[in-house]
Amino acid sequence: MWESEGPLPQQIYRRRRFAAVGVALVVLIVVVILVAVSCGGGSDEPSAAAVAKTSESPETPATTAPGTASPTGTATPSGTAASGTAAPGEAPQPAGAADSEGQETTVPGGQCADSSIGLTVSPEKPNYTVGESVTFISTVTNIGSVPCVRDLSGPMIVNTVEAVDGGQVWSNADCFPGTGSDIRTLEPGQQAQFKMVWAGTTSSQGCTPAERKPVPPGVYAVTTHLGSLTGKPVPFNIH
Q1: What are the Polar residues biased-composition ranges (predicted)?
Q2: Based on the number of CB atoms within 10 Å of its own CB, is 12 exposed (0-12), middle (13-18) or buried (19 or more)?
Q3: How does pLDDT run across 63-91, given as a tens digit for each residue?
């Protein structure tokens, strides 16, 4: 089959046949390479379609604990409660409920206990003369850690004067007991002060003016009272 059949020299026909065979081999090799590249799948990277699917619906591992977001960060922690809804494992609280360490102990409105009130009184000066009016300043202080309320009206604040070597000689409740109420809210550390003037005379319940006499010279002590709470007596002199 390799012999020439035409009028040309035999070498020319042989060269043509060899050239045709060579071209056929080159084409065959190219086709094999292309098929191998398209079907090989040697890359470890996912296709574009796979990547898109993963980003849209991340798969949370089965071992993810409640309250832990998936690695993509797109999941809402399951331990976070929406407004008005308790988180898993917690009982819902009714509106306005207070916990043991919060609202119940810090909202103003509770009655000030005696233990949270500091009560003091002092004369305006240490020495007076017989018949001179004496001015007392009473101070009520919230020494507690939370706001509270207290009635600071005239009937509740009472000053008494006693002779150091005798008994009581005067009380504002005898002559001016006061009326009504004066409810005040005291913040922690807040003070309320009240000035009271004593005429320097004796008094008794009902306060009959004719029975009131100037007290003699001596050492006296004033004590202030707020309801059942009593402050410490403070001395002063009348000459």
Answers
A1: 103-119
A2: exposed
A3: 333 333 333 333 333 333 333 333 333 33
The pTM assigned to this predicted structure is 0.55
- Inter-residue contact 15 to 22 (CB < 8 Å): no
Domain made up of 114-238: CATH architecture: Sandwich (2.60)
Joined together, the tokens standing for residue 58 give: 């991340």
Taking the CA atoms of residue 69, residue 74, residue 78 and residue 82 in that order, the dihedral angle to the nearest 10 degrees is 140
d(CA 89, CA 108): 32
Place of tokens 């071992």: 63
Joined together, the tokens standing for residue 107 give: 């909202």
Instruction: Give the helix/strand (H/E) hosting 94.
Output: none
Are 129 and 220 spatial neighbours (Cβ–Cβ below 8 Å)? no
Using alpha carbons only, give the angle 85, 86, 88 rounded to the nearest 5 degrees: 125
Structure tokens at 237: 């002199």
d(C-alpha 170, C-alpha 223), whole Å: 11
